């Protein structure tokens, strides 16, 4: 009976969305183009190098080498193997959903257990510095100093989530007797090299095949990511057109009033829970204190947005990693990021405002200009990079089908 009810609900929602697309074809088309442009110009070219590099580093055993070296740090702090440090750093550097991608690959390689993978996924999916500083702070708020506050709160709360999640799944580990022994925590460069070598020779693929697999697997994941970006861009627009967003925003108005945040932020907050970029842009356009805006942006970035969560769910679906721990950790990340924003607002933002523009160091102004230039370059050459690698993937798949 439960499955029948689930079937009816899913069929009804899909049918409703289909009729909404028919009712608002022009708006749906514009929303899909907007999502496509985001993926085409920025997401694909910015994430592709990280995805390919991570695939190669795992295949050549370098990640295993890093894991042995960082075991004494990652195990006591986050209760995950040292290889988790690779996923954590790459996740922060490149943004969502790199952390989930790496955790899934490590699980497929059986370098981590299911519980360890679930811990790792919960705190390795973060916004990239390019998005926080370049897109949100400079692009939407036109304030580079706000990016420092948002970045510190986002990555700091991300680490706190990892510390909290270290206690997750201990009972299951005890039942399955998968706890690591303390003897495995010893630092040893020699053992790290040995395990890296063993990992590399255990992969019997030729070098060309390893490179080809890295490109193909990365682009398959990015195409999936692009599909979700377009889908949620359209859904967000449709919810607004049919009046569902303003209706649900009433609930958020009550929540915001409790925290003394302007209630007209309710609709941007609801939109941000679906898609971070849209929500952050809408928040920046509202008249409110910078603190209120920063708190809400910190929350939606920590929550990741349902669009990113759907991408993560799709990546994890090919493994035995459960989605629920990651989903619950998103609320924790959002809450901690908001609290840190309130605590650090004065020292990291207001105190910075006491300096006159002419008193600011030249390198600060140059840094802000550098982010603007970087975003411009991404928008100009991003589509070319996307086309080239899509064509390369088509050639590789064609050659393999003919082999």
Automatic annotation (TrEMBL):
Keyword field: Membrane, Transmembrane, Transmembrane helix
Keyword Repressor: no
Top-level taxon in the UniProt lineage: Bacteria
Any single Pfam family the record assigns to this protein: Gate
Transmembrane portions of the chain: 47-70, 120-141, 147-169, 238-259, 290-316, 328-350, 370-398
InterPro entries, per the entry: Gate_dom (IPR011642), Spore_IM_YlbJ (IPR014226)
Nucleoside transporter/FeoB GTPase Gate domain ranges (all copies): 42-139
Protein name, entry field: Sporulation integral membrane protein YlbJ
UniProt source species: Oceanobacillus jordanicus
Classification of source organism: Bacteria, Bacillati, Bacillota, Bacilli, Bacillales
């Amino acid at each position: 009976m439960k499955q029948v009810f689930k079937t009816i609900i899913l069929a009804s929602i899909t049918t409703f969305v289909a009729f909404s697309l028919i009712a608002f074809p022009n708006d749906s088309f514009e929303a899909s183009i907007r999502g496509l442009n985001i993926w085409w110009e920025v997401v694909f070219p910015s994430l592709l190098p990280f995805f390919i590099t991570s695939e190669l580093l795992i295949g050549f055993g370098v990640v295993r080498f890093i894991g042995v070296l960082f075991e004494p740090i990652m195990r006591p702090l986050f209760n995950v193997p040292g290889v988790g440090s690779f996923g954590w750093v790459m996740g922060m550097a490149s943004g969502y959903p790199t952390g989930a991608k790496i955790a899934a690959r490590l699980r497929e390689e059986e370098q981590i257990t299911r519980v360890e993978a679930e811990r790792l996924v919960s705190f390795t999916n973060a916004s990239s510095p390019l998005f926080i500083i370049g897109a949100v702070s400079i692009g939407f708020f036109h304030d580079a100093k706000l990016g420092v506050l948002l970045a510190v709160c986002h990555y700091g709360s991300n680490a706190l989530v990892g510390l909290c999640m270290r206690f997750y799944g201990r009972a299951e580990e005890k039942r399955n007797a998968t706890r690591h022994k303390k003897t495995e925590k010893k630092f040893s460069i020699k053992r790290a090299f040995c395990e890296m070598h063993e990992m590399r020779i255990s992969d019997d693929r030729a070098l060309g095949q390893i490179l080809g697999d890295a490109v193909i697997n990365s682009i398959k994941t990015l195409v999936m990511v692009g599909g979700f970006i377009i889908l949620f861009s359209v859904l967000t627009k449709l919810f607004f057109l049919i009046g569902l967003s303003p209706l649900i925003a009433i609930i958020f108005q009550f929540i915001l009033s409790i925290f003394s945040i302007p209630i007209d932020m309710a609709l941007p907050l609801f939109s941000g829970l679906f898609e971070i970029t849209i929500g952050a842009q809408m928040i920046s356009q509202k008249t409110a204190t910078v603190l209120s805006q920063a708190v809400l942006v910190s929350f939606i970035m920590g929550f990741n947005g349902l669009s990113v969560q759907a991408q993560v769910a799709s990546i994890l679906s090919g493994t035995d990693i459960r989605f629920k721990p990651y989903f619950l950790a998103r609320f924790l990340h959002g809450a901690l990021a908001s609290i840190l924003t309130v605590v650090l607002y004065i020292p990291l933002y207001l105190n910075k405002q006491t300096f006159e523009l002419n008193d600011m160091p030249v390198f600060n102004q140059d840094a802000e200009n550098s982010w603007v230039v970087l975003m411009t370059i991404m928008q100009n050459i991003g589509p070319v990079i996307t086309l080239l690698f899509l064509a390369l993937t088509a050639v590789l798949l064609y050659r393999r089908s003919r082999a």
